[in-house]
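Tutorial, part two.
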Amino acid sequence: MLETSPGFAVRLIGYCNLSEDEILRRFQQEGVASLRDLDGEYTIVVSSASGCWIITSPVGAMHYFYHHHGERFHHGQQIASIAREAGLAWQWNWQALGDLLQLENLTGNASLHPDIHKVPPGSVLHFHRPSGTLRLDSRVCLDELPRRLSTAAEAVQALNRSVRTWAGDAPFLSLSGGFDSRVILASMLRLGIRPHLVTMGTEACSDVRVARRIAAHFDLPHDLIRLELDDLLRHGLTISALTNGTKTAWHWHTYVYPLKAAVPSGTTFYVGTLGEFARSYYFDRGALGMLADRVPAFSLSRFWTLKLGRHPTFQEGELGGLAPELARELDAGGIRRRSARLAAFCHHRFLRGLTRYYFEQRVPNFYANGIAMYRASSAWRSPFHSRAWIEAIWNLPERWKLGSNWHRFAIASNCPDLLEFPEENGFDRRRMLRRAPPLYWTPPMRRSTYVTYDQSATWYREPLLQDFLHDHFSLIDDLVDPSLAARIAASHRSGVDRTRTLAHLLTLIRWKQVLAGSAT
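Running the prediction step on this input gives:
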């Protein structure tokens, strides 16, 4: 029997269709289960003298962590604070750290500390203070969806409803040259919503060139946000704390550019998070993907083994300079074990299984960190988190997800004029095609050259960043021999690309500073 007396506190992290007062009222009148599937993207914490309830959305993109030992229960958004409050000495979760170094995201419900766990997506976690007991009830979103055949038009209609619901007054939109943000813009224009556009990069970047043309054609306000090396160093500690050390420095721009865009407080800032759910994110190879689908066990094993080995953070000859536990995560045996575990996350299916991995592992871990950075300075929203849209896309035939064909359909349905601007790595340099052409994934068909906004390779050669790294390599000597780290930095300075490795080293340095309570 739920208590209905005063003394409850409610905290909403993220956004949903209820206010905190309405959440408490529903909690008391209808029970905690009534909060499991609200519209929006959220974690809800309800606490009283007798207990604590933590409710996560089906997508689970609002990170929340806990530590439970006996009668002690500590919880919050930042694991460094949880560890301090619980009196936990820092320990490395070696498997999670290996995941971070090889995948750039954690998996499952892990954190970088083995005794601190993430509340899973779609969960109700209840701590009963008098008895010290903890109960976790989790439901898997994709397993809860009805199995049926949906249509591309149904998914467009669901998206449009979501865009209208969360737009508010005078919304902003993060616009690149890619598909997801253009799909959102097409929906907004169809609905008569004229957003303020924001793009990150320089005038030479492909994203900026395309966004400039779109803004001019539709007479929309457009801001260009330039990133500087100083931004990386100035905000690194804050970013590391927000993301619990699990967002690599290669992706810290997600914090910086909405901050510099100065989106007015309370104004919706639309981003394209989860839009990749509507395409074959990991193996968009047309007929090759359909063929690989026929032999899923073999295809998954080959896919993950090749992916993990393609861009190693540390070379085989460098593993001797790592902590033995970390080296075991990254050597040939570690790659085999991780490959098998990742195949299991795919439920031993190929195209659909990789989509499932994206939704259940990549989004609640990697993209959730991006959302935490957006939230720090803006009222971020993504219309792709709509339950109706997720259901429609999950039940679409795979052919719609190859070559971004659903995205093309959505743009053509809502605002066909947006097809008249180039697509990233497209066949036609002048415009976006209504359907992906045959063999669209092969180099001869990818005629449009993409110029990236990313300046990381250059930045990691700058004396300012090189000096910072050298001055702080000793902080991570429990993980990496400082002499090895120095050799890697010198190699990059001389022209060998070690951007990935140095980004990880900077990430770990900043995380160790967070753990030490550093303010510099």
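Residues 1-5 have pLDDT under 50 and may be disordered. In part three we will examine how such features are distributed along the chain.
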